């Protein structure tokens, strides 16, 4: 990733994490680390940059884990952001299709979504995602 591209991805991440669709905000240091991990050799996370006609249109991040419920690799679709002018062009759908082709050993794909984010919910449901019926808890260290 070129430095110009890195700066543009960071800017998109800042917009995404400042929006109402994200509950837990992330500071610039964390976002910079996320980018470094995506382009570095961290085995748990992969970053994707979407382009249309040579212009960066958005980004996505996928993280690998393990699901004991389903006995195999679980892929968490952590981030999916499209610049407003590129929304509705099918990039999100293509990302989900590509992720399923890339992670052929996955037994489960998961993501987080705010129910108020109607556009995202509609896309995810069209792609076969359903709401989980249990709450999740976390502890940040």
Automatic annotation (TrEMBL):
This is GNAT family N-acetyltransferase. CDD domains: NAT_SF (cd04301). The lineage of its organism: Bacteria, Bacillati, Bacillota, Clostridia, Lachnospirales. It comes from the Bacteria. Keywords: Acyltransferase, Transferase. Residues 1-141 form the N-acetyltransferase domain. It comes from Blautia stercoris. InterPro entries: Acyl_CoA_acyltransferase, Diverse_Substrate_AcTransf, GNAT_dom.
């Amino acid at each position: 990733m070129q430095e110009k591209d890195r700066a543009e991805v960071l800017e998109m991440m800042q917009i995404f994490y400042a929006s109402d669709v994200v509950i837990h905000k992330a500071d610039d240091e964390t976002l910079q680390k996320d980018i470094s991990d995506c382009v570095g050799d961290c085995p748990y996370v992969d970053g994707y940059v979407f382009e249309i006609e040579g212009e960066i249109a958005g980004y996505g991040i996928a993280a690998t884990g393990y699901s004991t419920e389903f006995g195999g690799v679980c892929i968490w679709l952590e981030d999916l952001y499209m610049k407003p002018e590129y929304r509705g062009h099918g990039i999100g759908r293509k990302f989900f299709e590509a992720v399923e082709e890339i992670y052929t050993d996955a037994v489960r794909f998961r993501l987080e979504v705010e129910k108020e984010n109607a556009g995202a919910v509609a896309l995810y449901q069209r792609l076969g995602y359903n709401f989980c019926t249990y709450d999740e808890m976390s502890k940040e260290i």
